[in-house]
Design a protein that fits this description.
Chain A: Pfam families: ABC_tran (PF00005), TOBE (PF03459). Chain A: Keywords: ATP-binding, Molybdenum, Nucleotide-binding, Transport. Chain A: One of its GO terms (molecular function) is ATP binding. Chain A has 363 residues and is an alpha+beta fold. Chain A folds into two domains: 5-234, 3-Layer(aba) Sandwich (Rossmann fold); 241-359, RNA polymerase II/Efflux pump adaptor protein, barrel-sandwich hybrid domain (OB fold (Dihydrolipoamide Acetyltransferase, E2P), Beta Barrel), CATH 2.40.50. Helices cover 25% and strands 34% of the residues of chain A. Chain A contains nine helices and 22 strands. Chain A has helices at residues 38-46, 93-103, 108-121, 137-150, 167-181, 195-201, 219-224, 229-235, 332-338, and strands at residues 5-11, 16-22, 27-31, 52-59, 62-66, 69-70, 78-81, 155-159, 187-191, 204-209, 212-218, 238-245, 249-251, 257-259, 261-262, 276-281, 286-289, 300-311, 314-321, 324-330, 345-350, 356-359. In chain A, helix 2 packs parallel to helix 4, helix 3 (108-121) packs across helix 4 (137-150) and helix 4 packs parallel to helix 5. The longest helix of chain A is centred in the middle third of the chain and has 15 residues, at 167-181. Chain B is mainly alpha-helical and 274 residues long. Chain B has a single domain (59-273), classed as Orthogonal Bundle (MetI-like fold). Chain B has 15 helices and no strands. Chain B starts with 10 loop residues before the first helix and ends with a helix. Classes of the chains: A alpha+beta (363), B mainly alpha (274). At the A-B interface, strand 7 and helix 2 of A face helix 10 and helix 11 of B.
Chain lengths: 363, 274
């Protein structure tokens, strides 16, 4: 079974100094700006980059890398899934998926069994005899997922695997990935730029900046209550986490409700009520009032102003809604008119058409 | 013109100057006319008799078997060299690479002389071999060594370039999927460079087949033992150029088959990569 992955990385070029424990069987999202060292971290874990002394990587009681120890990549059971599928162009889809089982020395029958199982799971069984050159981007990435899973890795490294794909293709693959990761049979680390990816697939999150971990913890807590301005700007969006009710509405445990559109086409079309879910929306979709406005907006939240900070020629008002942070972008004129100061009680109205509701990884 | 498939009708689109075509025509003529001249001077009446004479057949047979053996040696010795040169960039490797490519620019006669002073009875290695009862110089083995010496760089250059171009991206994937270095080389790297490997083999074979200078210096000119087709042609031409034409024509045909084979493979490879 999987064990905790303990990582200490020291690396001069590009600079990286990391110490972290990736929980056994859990999925951890790694976020951070370009050049933060995210991909390098994955390459050191995979063994494609050695890392300077005293880099130390252990999975349970097995040592991958330590002073004078270097286990080569092919003996680590660590599989990488990258932005480009990187299928072997000279092999058919089936032979690509068979590559890892064959390398593990399984019998022909066992290899065939594993190939068909993962081709089915990734829904590409009908492409088995095709060459990679004949596949669309989404199909190729599905095959790459099947190939990675057929290796039955102990550690799965995902490096923005959905980034090069169309939005709807990416969304379908995300749903597939969520299904495949649900058995918690391996320790997964996922580099991503997309807070929805992080929230949807990963229980834990690590925020990397300039080669250092600046924040880590439960994805939900870190992203909804960004502890650093960096994390807040990274997300760029408001995340309101709770439970799904009435098919398209996220409600927290104090009864605050945010209505939106379910964008995630999970199998079965949508998320069942009672599942953990998140509402994602831009600060621009949030309007601030002192009193309940006329009409009947579908989302109306009672909030307390925490602070007002400038962003470009606008102001961003951070408010507290039942313990979660919701940001609203308003004009400076509005700040003056409403006399927005910390501690003031306000009413937030959010346009339902600009709220995206998606599933959240279960803990 | 289009029906003939010359492709010249595309001139408008590419916008090449007219003088380039004129000069290119002269260049093409320089290469194409001489082999045609052979055709015109061929004594067709006695062609079959001359080609099937025992000395011609011996020379041809020796040429084909030694060139094939040299090509296999190039494959075995050249591929590891090529992948190492492609994957390491240290000073030592760069110097070795330059040295290995030396036979490309070295006059073959000089190469033959160098081989003689290595494997000859008085050579560094040949002396010891002689003491052990093995003589290399002026044997068929010497022919193969001479051919391998001049042909090896062709294979190394061809394969090394291809291995460099594919980079390590697929090899890294193979490693993380559990394939060790040997498995990765056999199952990923070599299949990916297969077209260049074949091209390199064909070039090596052609170079070995045409070898003259190093062979005559190091292996001599013993009919049936070291007299390959080029040597036989030379010997015949010294007495009577006309008598050397039939065998020459056979070599032209073999070379043509080889060149056309490589070219059509290349074209197909490019189309497949699109």
């Amino acid at each position: 079974m999987s064990a905790d992955l303990d990582v200490v990385i020291e690396q001069a070029v590009p600079p990286l100094r990391i110490e972290h424990r990736f929980g056994a069987g859990r999925t951890t999202a790694v976020v951070g700006p370009n050049g933060a060292g995210k991909s390098t971290m994955l390459r050191v874990i995979a063994g494609l980059v050695r890392g300077d002394e005293p880099t130390r990587i252990t999975l349970g009681d097995q040592v991958f890398r330590d002073r004078g120890v270097f286990v080569p990549p092919h003996r680590r059971g660590v599989v990488q899934l990258l932005q480009d599928a990187r299928l072997f162009p000279h092999l058919t889809v089936a032979d690509n998926v068979a590559f890892a089982p064959a390398a593990q020395g399984l019998s022909r029958a066992q290899v065939r069994e594993r190939v068909s199982r993962w081709l089915e799971a990734a829904e590409v069984a009908d492409l088995a005899d095709r060459r990679p050159g004949e596949l669309s981007g989404g199909q190729a990435q599905r095959v790459a997922i099947a190939r990675a899973m057929a290796a039955q890795p102990r550690i799965l490294l995902l490096d923005e695997p959905f980034r090069a794909l169309d939005v709807d293709v990416a969304s379908r693959l995300r749903a597939l990935m969520r299904e495949l990761l649900a058995d918690h049979g391996r320790t997964t680390i996922m580099v991503t730029h997309d807070p929805v990816d992080a929230l949807g697939l990963a229980e834990d999150i690590v925020v990397l900046d300039r080669g250092r971990i600046v924040e880590s913890g439960s994805t939900r807590e870190v992203l909804t209550n960004p502890g650093s301005r960096f994390t807040a700007s990274l997300a760029g969006l408001n995340l309101f986490v709770g439970t799904l009710v009435d098919a398209n509405c996220v409600v927290d445990d104090r009864g605050n409700r945010v209505v939106g559109t379910v964008a995630d086409d999970a199998p079965g079309g949508g998320i069942p009520d009672g599942e953990p879910a998140a509402a994602t929306f831009s600060p621009r979709a949030v309007a601030v009032y002192l009193h309940e406005p006329h009409g009947s907006p579908r989302t109306m939240l009672r909030a307390t102003v925490r602070d007002v900070v400038p962003r470009g020629d606008h102001a961003v008002v951070h408010t507290d809604v039942g313990g979660q942070t919701v940001a609203a972008e308003v004009t400076w004129a509005a700040v003056a008119d409403l006399a927005l100061v910390p501690g003031l009680g306000v009413v937030l109205v959010i346009k339902a058409s600009e709220v995206r509701v998606s599933a959240v990884a279960r803990r | 013109m289009t029906a003939l498939g010359t492709g010249l009708d595309r001139r408008g689109a590419t916008g090449l100057p007219a003088w380039a075509y004129a000069i290119a025509a002269v260049g093409v003529a320089l290469i194409v006319v001489p082999p045609l001249a052979l055709l015109f001077r061929t004594p067709w009446g006695t062609f079959v008799d001359q080609v099937t004479s025992s000395s011609s057949l011996d020379a041809l047979r020796l040429s084909l078997t030694t060139a094939a053996t040299s090509t296999v040696l190039c494959l075995v010795l050249g591929v590891p060299m090529a992948v190492i040169f492609a994957r390491h960039d240290g000073v030592v490797v760069r110097v070795l690479r330059a040295l290995v490519l030396l036979p490309l620019v070295l006059p073959p006669v000089v190469g033959g002389l160098a081989l003689l002073y290595t494997f000859g009875r008085l050579g560094i290695i040949g002396g010891r071999l002689h003491d052990a009862g093995i003589d290399v110089a002026f044997t068929t083995t010497a022919v193969v060594l001479a051919q391998t010496f001049v042909a090896l760089p062709f294979l190394v250059i061809s394969v090394e370039g291809a291995v460099r171009v594919i980079g390590t991206r697929y090899e890294e994937v193979a490693a993380t999927l559990g394939a060790g270095p040997s498995r990765t080389l056999w199952k990923v790297t070599l299949p990916l460079v297969a077209p260049s490997l074949v091209a390199g083999l064909v070039l090596s074979f052609a170079r070995a087949l045409g070898e003259f200078g190093a062979t005559i210096t190091f292996a001599g000119n013993a009919p049936g033992v070291t007299q390959t087709a080029p040597l036989a042609i030379y010997v015949a031409a010294v007495d009577d150029p006309q008598a050397a034409v039939p065998l020459s024509l056979i070599l032209v045909v073999i070379s043509l088959v080889v060149v056309v084979g490589v070219h059509s493979r290349r074209r197909r490879g490019e189309a497949g990569a699109m």
